[in-house]
Design brief:
The chain is mainly β. Helix content is 13%, strand content 54%. The chain has an 8-stranded antiparallel β-barrel with strand order 1-2-3-4-5-6-7-8. The radius of gyration is 24 Å and the shape is elongated.
């Protein structure tokens, strides 16, 4: 008798699920099958960058970014090039923990490419961009930036993990170059490498 009641309850639940369309599928699954990625993303990203090739000062910078990304085209292919482009705009806010200057504020415009494989939540990416900003320069200190106005170049590579329809986690490596583009002589530049999460 107990088995009959259990079977009847299961049959009722299955019929209700069929009648009302079943459980809603996750957009992560349908995005990889139909391949229609999100059109807009907003990201908060953070990194810790270490200076390289920066004589005479060694730099350590906390890289903080507020980034908006807009999908710029989809590559539908059966190869590993399958993916989509994104145009991005980032606000750059960087405290300088070790180095001659104390902070850097700016913006960066660039492109990102996401390599999407069917059925995978892991999405490798590469990105690069250019921008400008202001640093609290100390031109009287050898090796310091010669003026407040500087250009920046950013490039990154990493992997995104799609947690669900609305959230994803990025982990990667970041390169940043700060320079005033030869507007002062000498023109010291800052080259930084480090990890980034977002």
């Amino acid at each position: 008798m107990k088995r009959l009641r259990a079977l009847a309850a299961c049959a009722l639940i299955l019929n209700c699920m069929r009648a009302f369309g079943g459980a809603e599928q996750s957009r992560v699954a349908t995005a990889t099958e139909e391949f229609n990625p999100q059109r807009f993303e907003f990201a908060i990203e953070s990194g810790y960058l270490f200076g390289a090739i920066n004589p005479p000062a060694s730099y350590q910078i906390g890289a903080e970014f507020l980034t908006a990304r807009v999908r710029w085209g989809v590559v539908r292919s059966d190869s590993w090039f399958r993916g989509y482009h994104q145009f991005y705009v980032s606000a750059v806010l960087e405290p300088i923990f070790r180095g001659i200057e104390n902070h850097y504020f700016g913006f960066n415009l660039g492109m990102r490419y996401n390599f999407v494989q069917p059925g995978s939540r892991l999405v490798p990416y590469i990105s690069g961009g250019v921008g400008a900003g202001a640093i609290d320069s100390h031109p009287e200190v050898p090796g310091g930036q010669g003026q407040d106005f500087t250009f920046n170049i950013l490039s990154a590579a990493g992997i995104s993990y799609n947690v669900n329809d609305h959230w994803k986690i990025d982990v990667g490596a970041l390169y940043q170059h700060l320079s005033n583009g030869g507007q002062t002589d000498p023109n010291p530049s800052v080259n930084l490498f480090g990890p980034q999460v977002g």
